[in-house]
Amino acid sequence: MGTLTILLTSGPYSSRHPEFACRIADEALKKGHKVNMFLYMDGVLNAKKGQITKDSPNIGESLAELLKWENFKVIACIRSAQSRGIARGEADSSGSYPTDEYVAGAVIKSLHELGNLLKASDKVIALTGGR
Amino acid sequence: MDSIAIAITSAPYGVEGTLGSLYLSFPILAKKMQLDVLLSGDGVFCAMKEQMSEAIEHPAISELLRNAILLGGRVYVEKESCKKRGVKEAELLQGVEVVEREKISQVLVGADGNIVF
Fold first, then answer.
1. What is the residue range of A84's domain?
2. Distance from the CA of B85 to the CA of which of A36, A104, A128, B48 falls in 20 to 30 A?
């Protein structure tokens, strides 16, 4: 079993990167790997609940479904989340910042969490840009 | 994973990705991983010294690069991109290394993980 970290920087529908990220995560989880998805910059918008889509896969629902896997984590960057009005307040004892905007299981933490994830990973897939 | 290469191809100001990519340097260095920053295309402007970004209320990208170098990161600037843009080596931050395109590829291949902005 390996550990994969996916870095995602684009918002849910401005490119197909979030859809690819979910597909990659799904395949890796089915193969028995641990998967972390780190949401950065506009990428933090992907975990918002209440997304309504008609013509494209619903990224919020896809993440919520993937979060049913024990080996899957979604972590968003606090700086990116605060600047987009998603996170408020101070971190709790686990380092998570409160939000009522995210699908269950997605958390918001310091960017330093990405260092921890990368250090513990065997592979990183960076889906950046994507305009 | 013990080493990460971050490649930046965008100019220092005007897009969030440049700032965001350099902010990634610090958690990587804090975990004692080797960090290589590769500047290519318009990304070479990030390494120009004497950036004065106060007027646009933006952190100076050159200061972030300088701090990354002080913390042990290596910064490579692609020579051909500099030449095309009229950027001279004397205009660049102390501590960066101006290299041929092949070196950029070698660093990317040699790192455990690549993040390309």
1. 3-127
2. A128
The structure tokens listed for B59 are 């952190």
Which two tokens mark A13?
Answer: 């529908």
What's domain B3-116's architecture?
Answer: 3-Layer(aba) Sandwich (3.40)
Q: What is the pTM assigned to this prediction?
A: 0.94
Give the pLDDT confidence of B2-46 residue by residue, as tens digits.
999 999 999 999 889 999 999 999 999 999 999 999 999 999 999
Confidence label for A41 from pLDDT (cuts 50, 70 and 90) = very high
Domain count, chain A: 1
Contact residues on chain A for B57, CB-CB shorter than 8 A: none
Query: What is the domain partition of chain B in residue ranges?
Result: 3-116
Burial class (CB in 10 A: 0-12, 13-18, 19+), B7: buried
CATH number for the domain harbouring residue A40: 3.40.1260.10
Whether chain B has a CB inside 8 Å of the CB on A50: the answer is no
